[in-house]
Amino acid sequence: MIVGENTTVNLEALLAYGPDLIIAGNSVNKEITGELSRIATTVVIDEEETNVWNDWPSLVTKFGEILGQEDVAERYIAEFREKVKDAKEKLAGLEGTVAFVQVREKEVWLQGTDYLKTYYDGLGLKAPDADIMKEGAQITLEGLSTLDPDHLFLGYFNYSDKSIPALTDEWDDTAVWSKLKSVRNNQVYSINGELALGYGPIGQTYGVESVLEALK
Predict the structure, then answer these.
(1) I need a labelling partner for 207 at 20 to 30 A (CA). Which of 155, 156, 176, 193 fits?
(2) 161-195 tens-digit pLDDT
(3) Contacts of 98 (CB under 8 A, 6+ apart)
(4) Single pTM value for the model
(5) How far apart are CA 117 and CA 51, in angstroms?
(6) How many CB atoms lie within 10 A of CB 158?
(7) Are 110 and 55 within 8 A, CB to CB?
(8) Is the CB of residue 9 less than 8 Å from the CB of residue 44?
(9) Using an 8 Å Cβ cutoff, are 141 and 176 in contact?
């Protein structure tokens, strides 16, 4: 059940969980902190101090402190880093550039190298040579054809519910799509964008495993 996506939490969905403890970000949920406290004991984390958007290990460390499970958090982080290191070694001989896009119902977003440090820096993947690759941006098929990566990951947000359309469905039968190097060489890979292109350890663990499986 999704209670929110980088937005103020859905209180009705949260209530359905019946939580004993709520850990909330001070910025995202600042308007409803009082309401959260009425549902369950609430611990508020300073999102900037803990760097929740760009450094999930620091957040997991914080969770460990809150729950009295520092050793579990430390072990979890170490195991993830070992997984990334192992995957990087296995992908060391990969040739060509790699791009990731987030596929929504009515828009597609190129994921920048600043945002996907775990994949680009962590796994040693090479991004297409373009200024847009640093921060990413909403992108069209024509824009993607300009980048023309050797390997293309489509991070679908309808991965688990195909009744929801995806904009790239409209690209499949176009001449521009068929001329992409990744398409011609059968190097387009579908992944769960909600997981792989998120901020957290569960999603990034899935992402590292999925990227390795596709590219090894």
Answers:
(1) 176
(2) 888 889 999 999 899 999 999 999 999 999 999 99
(3) 119, 120, 125, 126, 127, 149, 150, 151, 152, 153, 215
(4) 0.86
(5) 14
(6) 17
(7) no
(8) no
(9) yes
